[in-house]
Amino acid sequence: MINQEQAVVELRQVSKRFGNYEAIKDLNLSIRRGEFFSVVGPSGCGKTTTLKMIAGFDHATEGAVYLSGTSANHIPPYKRNVNTVFQNYALFPHMTVYDNVAYPLKLRKVPKNEIRSRVIESLKMVSMDPFLDRSPNQLSGGQKQRVALARALISKPEVLLLDEPLSALDFHLRQEMQRVLKHLQREVDITFVYITHDQGEALSLSDRIAVMKNGVLHQVGSPEEIYEMPQTSFVAGFIGKSNLIKGRMEGPTRFVSDAGLQAMTNEASNLSGEPHVYISVRPEKLRTSKDDERYVNRLSAVFVEETYYGADRELTFREAGGTHILLKQQKDDGNVKFSEGESVDLFFRPEDAVIVKEWGS
Ligand SMILES: Nc1ncnc2c1ncn2[C@@H]1O[C@H](COP(=O)(O)OP(=O)(O)OP(=O)(O)O)[C@@H](O)[C@H]1O
């Protein structure tokens, strides 16, 4: 259960420099108890560095990390109530599954009987109890990751940090493990901080997502908020696909693109004074004819090509400014065929034109 009030992990004005290089810039994050929180962004954006500072393997150059309200800057990793699951499993190869999972409890000198029942309980949670006596090299990648999860959870940490735990797995196994993780997180009610560069994974697993680029936090929000209301052009382009049209605001809801497209946006924007903004329109929000009278925005474009994806198809157009515009249609959505070079009017509603800052494009 997510506790809205209490931050279990908090980063306050955290910066991290490696020599002259600033890997994290003035990062503020507040992660609630019990939530599945993902940090997503392209390679090198600072995801692992953030995780290491929470775990205590690395330290902030400026600012502080708080765990359950207490500054953790001087608390060593082994004294933090935080465990980490890595991409490469990190199981002990010479120990059985049972001994691997029992290891953290043996270190703490927990009585033998209790160890046995807790190991079985942990392995059951990840459906690995039939594999007690196997050694790690007799397990598949997905099975190893399940054992690693059982081992990380057995000492009941407050926070489980997961650093791209599924990235070594193939597509189908990855999907299966996503279901396991989501289910497990609800069952154990432990805060998960999940790092991934896969935006689809972050959208499907998380209660909230932080999107980062070049050490800068661009947005934090629920998957719906991040997808439906991206705040920067980078977020709009990185989370799902988006048509970004550059221009300026000429009033709170009146956008004019550099190529002269005029569009109504229905949100009261605080960017009306900005000389440069984008509107972001998702490909599935565009129509080749007006569905109803709300489709007041018209974008004239030229058809380029169609790409078939099975359940849906993607049509590419080019607008007057030369920007490629993607339009996504469900397979049976009255699919009209266009010929290359044909002029087509595309329509969208004001509420589907989200004003975003140019920042980080
Ligand atoms: N020990 C270090 N010394 C110098 N630079 C470092 C060090 N660790 C990380 N960096 C740099 O800091 C930046 C952020 O690295 P980090 O590993 O946090 O990125 P990431 O988002 O986790 O990337 P990836 O998805 O590729 O793992 C990168 O530019 C990286 O080269």
From TrEMBL:
Gene3D superfamilies: 2.40.50.100, P-loop containing nucleotide triphosphate hydrolases. Residues 9-239 form the ABC transporter domain. It comes from the Bacteria. The keyword Oxidoreductase does not apply. GO terms for cellular component: ATP-binding cassette (ABC) transporter complex. InterPro entries: AAA+_ATPase, ABC_SmlMolc_Importer, ABC_transporter-like_ATP-bd, ABC_transporter-like_CS, Mo/tungstate-bd_C_term_dom, P-loop_NTPase, Transp-assoc_OB_typ2. PROSITE patterns: ABC_TRANSPORTER_1, ABC_TRANSPORTER_2. One of its GO terms (molecular function) is ATP hydrolysis activity. Keywords: ATP-binding, Nucleotide-binding, Translocase, Transport. PANTHER family: SPERMIDINE/PUTRESCINE IMPORT ATP-BINDING PROTEIN POTA, SPERMIDINE_PUTRESCINE IMPORT ATP-BINDING PROTEIN POTA. This is ABC transporter ATP-binding protein. It comes from Paenibacillus apii.
